[in-house]
Design a protein that fits this description.
heterodimer; A: 114 residues; mainly beta; 11 strands; B: 118 residues; six-stranded mixed sheet
């Protein structure tokens, strides 16, 4: 009964380092999403995917990359970490495009860039 | 452009009080979807309700109720007889219908922090 699993839960990076935030879901959902949540703010969509091999930019894609080689996995890559990317990152999935379906969220990854 | 405004940044109530969280949205689409999510102190996001633009019927689920009014572009959320466990940040969100999977956009409000004191 895992749902959406994100790893790691916490991470501290130095400026310029790179890392990959992992996200996997076991609900066979076609649609997956990455959001960031800055303090006191709502979520902003970074990237989303409508199926394996297909990804699209959201509202704030700069500085990030994604891939979707399988239905289950949707990793988010930071190539050159910057302080502005300090945030809490949420991965989500849904059975259909989330305009008309609720999304299932992971527990989040808290990332600090120092 | 779509926009969601939650004007109440923080609300504090005493247990058993009723509380209403306001949500006002802007969109140019005639077909759209509205959501409420709860984020408790533990940080996870919990889906509460979805409403499409063609269904203005109010909904009640236990102590929770939602009032959707297209005339005022509002989708307000009321908790009756609040409990300490209701303490959380509540987010309202709006999504316009898209076709073909591209240009998807989901806009969240900034959230309302609800604190229910014993």
């Amino acid at each position: 009964n895992a749902g959406v699993t994100q790893t790691p839960k916490f991470r501290i990076l130095k400026i310029g380092q790179s890392m990959t935030l992992q996200c996997t879901q076991d609900m066979n959902h076609n649609y997956m999403y990455w959001y960031r949540q800055d303090p006191g703010m709502g979520l902003k969509l970074i990237y989303y995917s409508v199926g394996a091999g297909i990804t699209d930019k959201g509202e704030v894609p700069n500085g990030y990359n994604v891939s979707r080689s399988t239905t289950e996995d949707f990793p988010l890559r930071l190539e050159l970490a910057a302080p502005s990317q300090t945030s809490v990152y949420f991965c989500a999935s849904s059975f259909e495009l989330a305009s008309n379906q609720p999304q299932h969220f992971g527990d989040g990854t808290r990332l600090s860039i120092l | 452009a779509q926009k969601v405004t939650q004007a109440q940044t923080e609300i504090s109530v005493v247990e058993k009080e009723d509380v209403t969280l306001d949500c006002v949205y802007e969109t140019r689409d005639t077909t759209y979807y509205l959501f409420w999510y709860k984020q408790p102190p533990s940080g996870e996001l919990v889906f509460l309700i979805r409403r499409n633009s063609f269904d203005e019927q109010n909904e009640i689920s236990g102590r929770y109720s939602w009032n959707f009014q297209k005339s005022t572009s509002s989708f307000n959320f009321t908790i009756t007889a609040s409990q300490v466990v209701d303490s959380a940040v509540y987010f309202c969100a709006l999504s316009e219908a898209v076709y073909g999977g591209s240009n998807y956009k989901l806009t969240f409000g900034k959230g309302t922090l609800l604190t229910v004191n014993p």
